[in-house]
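User: Please run a holo structure prediction.
Assistant: Happy to. Please share the sequence and the ligand.
User: Here you go; the ligand is adenosine-3',5'-cyclic-monophosphate.
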Amino acid sequence: MNGNLTFTMVKPAAVADGHAAAILAKITEGGFNIKALKMTRLSKEQAERFYAIHSDRPFFNSLVASMTAGPIVAALLEKENAVEAFRNYIGATNPADAAEGTIRKLYGKSIEANAVHGSDSDENARIESAYFFSEFERF
Ligand code: CMP
């Protein structure tokens, strides 16, 4: 059975462009309950750890640089079948390929500055949210 939690980050470029509140509103309009929320800034070490699975990819250093360029907004989201539902809701990784009306189509500028991160599995949702939220910060 699929879980009901997923993790998201509004990426630095979208925060810098002033889209954080609109993206959070769109997320709740989509039926996702915000269970935890935090604005913070990743250190280089934190971003490298968060994206460690991509450390061999050619875009890794550039991804880490973009994710540490400014503050992010991290959130733990709840909905039935949350991981898959959220991935569908935000659209394809590359905003150019994302369906009309999805968050990445609306607010993404490039494959790297694609507005939001979304967990790709229940296990990663647990691991990623644990980077940002303690059990006392979840509601
Ligand atoms: P995200 O969902 O945060 O997970 C990994 C990120 O790597 C992805 O979104 C993209 O922003 C970024 N990325 C940069 N280049 C690529 C690429 N060529 N393929 C996939 N992801 C990429």
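Residues 54, 59, 63, 93, 111-112, 114, 117-118 surround adenosine-3',5'-cyclic-monophosphate (CB under 6 Å).
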